[in-house]
Write a structure and sequence with these properties.
CATH topology of the largest domain: TIM Barrel
CATH superfamily of the largest domain: Enolase-like C-terminal domain
Number of helices: 12
Helix content: 25-40%
Number of domains: 2
Distance between the termini: 20 Å
Strand content: 15-25%
Radius of gyration: 19 Å
Order of helices and strands: EEEHHHHEEHEHEHEHEHEHHEHEE
CATH architecture of the largest domain: Alpha-Beta Barrel
Strand order of the largest sheet: 5-6-7-8-9-10-11
Largest sheet: 7 strands, parallel
CATH class of the largest domain: Alpha Beta
Bound molecules: magnesium ion
Number of strands: 13
Structural class: alpha/beta
Shape: globular
């Protein structure tokens, strides 16, 4: 069964393809398992291509043919593969995390995200996140001069001892990135996500390996994983963009073999995909803080959240499957 949904965002979201104010997608249910496809053009196929692939999957016999029908549609494949793994885990009466790994973690650390803001507001927002229990905070940079961003992070460092990350979303030149990395080293910044444009793997390879790590995110939209791993210290893995939790777990193993740290995050997905990503993170031994505290980006959701953020961590649901109870009859596409 395929159910279309539309969920309003709490705040408009800037994407590479423009600003959006809702997330549209589909739930795919089969054999007692439920998966989610929430495409994000730029990262995945379009909504229309996703629906077509899911319809082909629905009419296919068996899981293998259903998965093959989604080969070129990562969000659709995410839904079908998740429905399959969820059904298998429910049949085995184990949680999704236990289905993925022998000894999954009981909870996973997550980071808070602070957007572009003045020095004062940045410090206030980081302090508020620390008070809510976050040990790691990611600050968006690149919207103002490197000097101004360094001032923001220096003020944060003076105010708290939180683990600091920055995300430049590919906005810097190589010169700006070098200047920022030199200054951030003194502030103990753990890593910068996507300092340079997505296609500049050589530039990232030159920056990696220093005191401040290079985390690649958008580069995965333009390059194969193996090439990205050669240019990064950390890799940001989005199961929806990779075509499923199973593929994301393969990417985790490739990353660890290459000495690159995997960080799991979402493409601002609804509760089914978000919770599946939490189980995936739990299946990664000693996973760094992940970008999974994204439920507050949605103004509404498909079901109760079985994995809310508490004290900067998410406890992994222990019920069979992914643990999200969705009333499919209640799901509809009227945002
Ligand atoms: Mg990023």
């Amino acid at each position: 069964m395929i159910r279309a949904f539309a969920l309003p965002l709490a705040h408009p979201l800037e994407t590479a393809r423009g600003t959006i104010d809702e997330r549209r997608g589909f739930l795919f249910a089969r054999n007692g398992g439920i998966g989610e496809a929430t495409p994000l053009p730029g990262w995945t196929e379009s909504l229309g291509a996703c629906e077509q692939a899911l319809e082909a999957a629905e009419s296919a016999d068996g899981w293998n043919d259903a998965l093959a029908a989604c080969e070129d549609a990562p969000a659709a494949r995410h839904a079908v593969s998740l429905a399959k793994l969820d059904a298998e885990a429910r049949d085995a009466n184990v949680s999704f995390a236990h289905h993925l790994a022998e000894n999954p973690a009981e909870s996973v650390p997550v980071n808070a995200t602070v957007g572009d803001a003045s020095v004062e507001d940045t410090v206030d927002e980081v302090r508020a996140a620390v008070e809510r229990g976050f040990d790691t905070v990611k600050v968006k940079v690149g919207a103002r001069s490197v000097e101004a961003d360094v001032e923001r992070l220096r003020a944060v460092r003076d105010a708290t001892d939180v683990t600091l990350r920055a995300d430049a979303n590919g906005t810097w030149t190589r010169e700006q990135a070098r200047e920022a990395f030199d200054a951030f080293a003194d502030l103990g910044v753990e890593y910068v996500e996507q300092p340079l444009p997505a296609d500049d793997l050589a530039g990232h390879a030159d920056l990696r390996g220093g005191e401040v790590g290079v985390a690649l995110d958008e580069s995965l939209t333009e390059h194969a994983l193996g090439d990205v791993l050669d240019a990064a210290d950390y890799v940001v893995l989005k199961p929806m963009a990779l075509g499923g939790v199973d593929r994301a777990l393969d990417a985790v193993r490739d990353a660890r073999r290459a000495g690159v740290q995997p960080v799991v995050t979402t493409t601002v997905d609804a509760v089914v995909a978000r919770t599946a990503a939490v189980h995936l993170a739990a299946a990664i031994p000693d996973v760094p803080a992940c970008g999974l505290a994204t439920s507050d980006r949605l103004a509404d959701d498909l079901a109760d959240d079985p994995a809310p953020v508490e004290d900067g961590r998410i406890r992994v649901p222990e019920t069979p499957g992914h643990g999200v109870s969705v009333d499919l009859a209640e799901v509809n596409a009227d945002a």
